[in-house]
Structures are given as structure tokens and as C-alpha cells.
Amino acid sequence: MNQTNFAGVDTHKDTIACYYAGRFKEFKTTQKGFQEALKWAPDAKWAIEGAYSFGKPFSAFLIKNGKEVYEINPLLTKTWRSVLSISNPKNDYGDAKVISLFAEKSNLQVVSLATIKLKEKLTARKLAVKQKTEITNSLKMLFSIRGKELPFKDLTTKKALCWLENHDDIIIQTSTRILKILLENIEKIENEIKKELPEKAQKLKSLKGISDIIAATIYSETKGKLINAKKLANYAGIAPVEKSSGKTSRHRHNKTGNRILNSCFYTLSIFQKRFEPEAKKYYEKKLAEGKSPRHARKCLARQLVNIVFKILKD
Questions:
Q1: What's the Cα-to-Cα distance from 72 to each of 5, 33, 83, 246, 310, rounded to whole Å?
Q2: What digits encode the pLDDT tens for the residues 139-166?
Q3: Residue 168 structural domain
């Protein structure tokens, strides 16, 4: 195949593997490593697998330096490797090479600095929520070990926080102060996300059950990966996987795909079957057909993928 003007990049936590104009080289995921990569291929366009995950710092660096950056879906890399018979053993060189060679022939999505910043905020919020949960659980466990009952189920309310803060135990006081700071930070981050929510993500909120956070998550996780509704369902781990043998045709639960997206559609399907009449009707129809509650909810989630895809595509 002819060489292209695309540098293919396979990203990892500590290194980025780059292929360009018949050359291959790895660089460290540091500012110095990014500068060396840019000097190594100064005129290239950059096609990056994982541009919004491990490749996020490098993508942001390239965009700030005026370079064109494109997102590569890992599923595309796998397909391209099989076309060139670069499959065994799988390695960074093979991935970077096929990305470079095929990028120009594909309709790729430009990586957006705004989306990178949105994902950074979502990651920061996720970490803060995790820490909040750990502290509330540790406080509940502390009271349980001491054989005392908490007068509040939710420790994040103003009344509960005030009660905990006025407690005479230093451990409880310290944990409560940290909890208050985390709650304030979560609120600030959520306000920032709401304020900077892209127009397409705003449209997702027209579907009942989609909050600002879920809209931002779906938008950021699907950016550059929208091909059709079927592939979106597969990418989100919603579509079942065929497991057939001979004349027996069976399907099993899909345990792969983007688990963040999968979690969003799970939450959305639960809300819809409880509070949305049409969704509830569809769910009950599937139960009447003999499907298990889990299978019926999966069917509902698959229908919601179609609706979300249409909103994002329009």
C-alpha cells in the first residue's frame, strides 16, 4: 500500500507507539516524549487509537500545537489488521502501521479539545463520587462496629452533615469535613458540565431519564464512533453475542463493549420501564412473550440505543 500523510498511534499508559512514512518509534507519555514525537513527524496528520482515553494528553498536546487529530475506533484497527494479515502476534507495531495506512481511506471523526475537557471533568467527578461513597460507607461501618444507630439513611444531607460535624469524635469530625469538601467539588464540577454541555448532548435530555451527566457521558463516549445503531449497540455491549453450534442457534449476554456506555443504558432502561408508559408497555410485552426480566430490560435498552443514535445523528 502507498504511504499516507497520517501518523498512526497506538496508545498506552506509559508509551505511545507511532508509525509514519515507513518508520516506527515509541515515545514516553510525557511532555518531553510528546515534543519528540512532534519533531519526529512534524508534517503529519495524527490518527490515534484511544484519543479520549490513554491518548488524551497527547491528543490535547497536538491540538494545542495546531495539528489535525482523529479518533480511531479499536474495532477498526482489528479489522484493518485482518485485511493485511497482521494478526499474530498482535503488537504495537502492527496496530500503529495499519492505522497509518488505512486512516486516509476512512471517514474519521476529528478529535475535539472541548470533548477532551468534558471527559476530564467527567473523570474528576467519577473519582470524587467514588471517594464520597467510600467515606459514607466507612462512617456507617464505624457506627455499626460501635453498636450505635445512625439517625440518618443519607449522610449527605445538610441535616446529617451538621449532626456529624458536631459529633465529639475526631474521626467522625475529620471524615465529615472531607465529605463536605467532596460534595462541594462534585456540585461545582456538575455545574461546569451543565454549563458547557454541547448542543447534541443537550438534545439527548429530551429523552426522559437522561440527566446532564448521562448526556455528557453518552456524547463523550460515542464521539467519533457513530456508524450505525447496530454497531453502537455492539460498542455499548447491549447487542447479544451469537453462540451457535450446528443447527442450534443461541445468543449470550455481551460482556464486552464500552462498560461506561453500558452502565448509562442500564440506568436509562431502569428509569424508562418505571416511569415512561410506552417503555413500560414494551417491557411488559417482552415479559408476556416469555422473556426473563433481565432479557426484557435488555430488549428495552436496545430500543433506547436506536432512539439515542437517532438524536445524535440528527
A1: 16, 21, 16, 36, 22
A2: 999 999 999 999 999 999 999 999 999 9
A3: 114-196
